[in-house]
Amino acid sequence: SAVISQKPSRDICQRGTSLTIQCQVDSQVTMMFWYRQQPGQSLTLIATANQGSEATYESGFVIDKFPISRPNLTFSTLTVSNMSPEDSSIYLCSVAANNGLNEQYFGPGTRLTVT
Amino acid sequence: QKEVEQNSGPLSVPEGAIASLNCTYSDRGSQSFFWYRQYSGKSPELIMFIYSNGDKEDGRFTAQLNKASQYVSLLIRDSQPSDSATYLCAVPGGGGYNKLIFGAGTRLAVHP
Questions:
Q1: Secondary structure (3-state) at B82
Q2: What residues contact A15, with CB distance under 8 A and at least 6 apart?
């Protein structure tokens, strides 16, 4: 499976500011995903990021709040904009295996605390 | 809206026993099923996936599918304290984007 890294691993931010999280993969992948995992909760998909097209957002998530870039097949960013304490969460990127099946592999996550 | 349900637990088993984790899914047309293990403070790790054509065994782990009742099970034989984690079940979400829908996870505690 691919090796996935995320930066930063954690951050503490003030409300009203924005944070951009980077996800880097060591091989080219078609599909990347961004999830949120709030404390004690399961994974919630924010959006699917495909290279060369706009991200596809899930219900409840909007581009103005969570803009995503996917400039090439090994890299993506998620920005959490105008943050509030409710945005405190772990943000995870994942990649789909290139075999056309649904296996996904996760990065180590970014732990965000908004004060 | 596709749904995946799991008992949140904790499921407590003694070391050496068989741990049985279950997951029910709402979409009868689901063709593949994924089990992830998540240790506290870590990201999910894919440990097993099966397709609708049959069960699968990998070392101490066995995934079984009951299509008629729409549930999938993960059995862990000879449970070890290192198996203590949250186990997440996932099914494809459809829509052509390879996305997965995750259950809430079952916390497993293996005690010596």
A1: helix
A2: A83, A84, A85, A114, A115
pLDDT of residue B31: 87
A33, A48, A105 ranked by CB distance to B46: nearest: A105
B97 has pLDDT over 70: no
Per the CB < 8 Å rule, is B104 touching A107? Answer: no
With a pLDDT cut of 90, the percent of chain B lying above it is 76
pLDDT in tens, B32-72: 999 999 999 999 999 999 988 788 999 999 999 999 999 99
Residues 6+ apart with CB under 8 A from A50: A30, A31, A32, A56, A70, B97
A2 touches chain B (CB under 8 A): no
CB spacing of B44 vs A48 below 8 angstroms: no
Show the low-confidence residues of chain A (pLDDT under 50).
none
CB B109 within 8 A of CB B82: no
Which of B99, B102, B106, B107 should be substituted to probe chain A, the one whose Cβ sees the most A Cβ atoms within 10 Å?
B99
In B1-112, where do the E strands start and end? 4-5, 11-14, 19-25, 32-38, 45-51, 56-58, 61-66, 71-76, 85-92, 100-102, 106-111
Fill in the DSSP letter of residue A1: -
From first CA to last CA, the distance across chain B in angstroms is 41
Listed residue (B59, B77, B69) closest to B21, CA to CA? B77
Task: Please give the pLDDT value at position B104.
Answer: 94
